[in-house]
Write a structure and sequence with these properties.
Helix content: 25-40%
Distance between the termini: 69 Å
Largest sheet: 6 strands, mixed
Shape: elongated
Number of domains: 2
Mean pLDDT: 80
Radius of gyration: 22 Å
Low-confidence stretches: 154-170, 180-186
Number of strands: 12
Oligomer: single chain
Number of helices: 10
Length: about 270
């Protein structure tokens, strides 16, 4: 296995440029913040950015935890990887990750200033320091369950010019804002969720009123059970589908919480 390292100080744009570097060197596998990525898919690990503190995040990222380390080693062995890219804030950090995962010595190291301009690095630093933004180099749907309840945004990069250029691709990254970065701990209460649902569902044509909302919180998201009264003359399956889509959009946009179950119960029909 050839082990490549991608090094840059915190907030300089490593994760943003990770797929670009991997493509240049023909690498399909990336380890970034304790997750193993194959192409654009997360195949193992839990992001270190989900930890409650910055110190805990660093410990997770270098695999000090035995359970986390063992699972990652097993995943790497199972994949039979030929090339892998390890991201880190220093040469020491990537070396520690390599040693903790029992990987071969680093074959080649790439530094952030080799792939990003001074202006781009400064902009990345500003975004981290002022807005607390962190990048995960995978599409939002790949990482959302790990960050249920965090602030997430999808970041897409489109290049429609220079069709023969190696940069011509469509890649999606995810912007997250871990609570430890600048907000402190936060909790989204059931009252807030209920208020959003009552407000959005009541506006769906065919819904007369929302009778009850029950929320069931789980570690990777939330299940909802909603009792409604509908107006006479509406197709119930079609209306239920429209309500579900409305809820998914509003909750995702407002809270970032992952929804993996929505039950719509029609309790009454008004004339």
């Amino acid at each position: 296995m050839q082990v490549y390292a991608f090094v840059g100080k915190t907030g300089t744009g490593k994760s943003f440029n990770a797929q670009k570097v991997a493509k240049k060197y023909g690498i399909r596998y990336i380890i970034d913040d304790a997750i193993l990525i194959k192409d654009n898919k997360v195949i193992a690990g839990k992001s270190a950015k989900t930890e409650a503190s910055k110190i805990a995040s660093v410990k997770a990222a270098i695999f000090l935890d035995e359970i986390r380390r063992k699972k990652m080693c097993e995943a790497i062995k199972k994949e039979k990887i030929d090339k892998i890219l390890i991201l880190g804030t220093s040469d020491k950090m990537v070396k520690t990750i390599v040693e903790n995962l029992n990987l071969e010595k680093i074959y080649h190291t790439i530094y952030i200033d080799e792939v990003a301009s001074k202006e781009q690095i400064e902009e990345a630093r500003r975004s981290r320091q002022e807005e607390g933004k962190h990048i995960v180099p995978v599409p939002t749907f790949e990482i959302k369950k790990q960050f249920s309840g965090y602030f997430l945004d999808s970041f897409k990069k489109f290049n429609f010019f220079n069709k023969n250029d190696e940069e011509n691709d469509i890649s999606e990254k995810t912007i997250i804002r871990p609570t430890y970065s600048y907000l402190g701990n936060f909790v989204i209460s059931d009252t807030v969720i209920n208020s959003i649902i009552y407000h959005t569902v009541s506006k769906v044509p065919g819904v007369n009123k929302v009778i009850r909302v029950n929320t069931q919180k789980h570690i990777d998201g939330m299940k909802l059970e909603i009792d409604i009264e509908i107006k006479f003359g509406y197709n119930i399956p079609k209306l239920s589908s429209e309500i579900k889509n409305t809820i998914i959009y509003s909750i995702d946009r407002s809270t970032g919480i992952n929804l993996f179950g929505i039950s719509i119960n029609v309790k009454s029909i008004s004339k």
